[in-house]
Amino acid sequence: MTHAIPIRRDARTDHLDVALRLAVGGLPVLPLRAGKGPLANCRNCTDNACGGRPNMKIPGPCQCPFPCHAWAAATTDPTVVTSPAWKAGWRYAGAVGYHPGGAGVTVVDLDDAAAVDWARENLPPTRTVVTTRGEHWIYQGTMRSVNGVRKGVDLKSLMSYARWLGPGTGALAELPEVVRALAEKKPTAFRPAPRAVAVPAPVGGGECRHRSPAYLERGIAMAEQQIAEAASAVHATVYRTFLAVLSAHGRCGCLTEAHIGRLFTAAQAKGESPRHCTDAWTNARTALGM
Questions:
Q1: Are 180 and 165 in contact (CB under 8 A)?
Q2: What is the model's pLDDT at position 248?
Q3: How many whole angstroms separate alpha carbon 187 and alpha carbon 282?
Q4: What is the pLDDT of residue 163?
Q5: Looking at 30-39, 63-72, 189-198, 231-240, which range is the least confident one?
Q6: How far apart are CA 270 and CA 204, in angstroms?
Q7: pLDDT bucket at 13, cuts 50 / 70 / 90
Q8: How far apart are the first and last CA of the chain?
């Protein structure tokens, strides 16, 4: 991985000690529940009160002392990992998680024996970590995270988290094109016209209480431009842009179906499907507690 990760791991060590050693070694960590999901988001982070990334209004790097925002809460700061609030989180944690994208790597999560056999036939060898049901193949390099790229195979990198199960074995290889290609849509002879998607606008429907109408129009136009200019990581750009718009105008009720339609149209023009647009919008609302 990009940063040095301690090789020794004592299975008897509690989650806090493991997380602290990993953080000191440069791996961004976070506590996971026994079911491998991240601990619940912190309500104090509503409206980026926790200190989301400046000017982008998206979660992370989170300044809140609580383990919130899932992957964006992952940290390498020992003072955060050992803070009183995080210690409480570690007491209830069932596992240690980490943010692969934050460590500069991509995890190919192989969920069963059939997926492992497929990887051995089709992917270049790299560092391998044995999981409960399959294996994690870890490559140097980042990409957008996608679940279900084929049966039993998920890609975990940017805006995602993985369970720490030890350093694994084998040399870390560069992220190959064959893995990146798994996340790409199948080529088509033509690009379909954008489809309308019914997504409810935030309740309110009135004038923005804290911004002028001109500010809202400028914000939507800038969001359209940001999506249109994305040269790579389109899915991540769409999500971040939706999050920024909702953070600024999602609660005052000034957003209308027409505004949302413009954002979805811009995203679909870059190749995003209606379902991906809806998922990104829903995930952004959830991240903001809306």
A1: no
A2: 76
A3: 27
A4: 93
A5: 189-198
A6: 30
A7: very low
A8: 36
Q: Which of 87, 85, 66 is nearest to 20 (CA)?
A: 87
Q: Does position 59 have pLDDT exceeding 50, yes or no?
A: no
For residues 272-290, average pLDDT:
79
Six-digit token string for 85: 């609030």
SS3 letters for the chain? CCCCCCCCCCCCCCHHHHHHHHHHCCCCEEEECCCCCECCCCHHHHHHCCCCCCCCCCCCCCCCCCCCCHHHHCECCHHHHCCHHHHHHHHHCCEEEECCHHHCEEEEEECCHHHHHHHHHHCCCCEEEECCCCEEEEEECCCECEEEEECCEEEEEEECCEECCCCCECCCEECCHHHHHHCCCCCCCCCCCCCCCCCCCCCCCCCCCCCCHHHHHHHHHHHHHHHHCCCCCHHHHHHHHHHHHHHHHCCCCCCCHHHHHHHHHHHHHCCCCHHHHHHHHHHHHHHCCC
**Cα R_g (the chain), whole angstroms:** 20
Question: pLDDT of 70-100, one tens digit each?
Answer: 777 788 999 988 888 787 778 778 899 999 9
pLDDT category of residue 46 using cuts at 50, 70 and 90: low
Global pTM reads: 0.58
User: What average pLDDT is seen over the chain?
Assistant: 77
User: How many other C-beta atoms can be found within 10 angstroms of the C-beta atom of residue 12?
Assistant: 5
C-alpha 108/C-alpha 154 separation (Å) is 6
Query: 266: how many CB neighbours lie within 10 A of its CB?
Result: 22
Q: Are 177 and 137 in contact (CB under 8 A)?
A: no
Cβ-based neighbour number of residue 113 at 10 Å: 12
Read off φ and ψ for residue 42, nearest 5 degrees: -90, 130
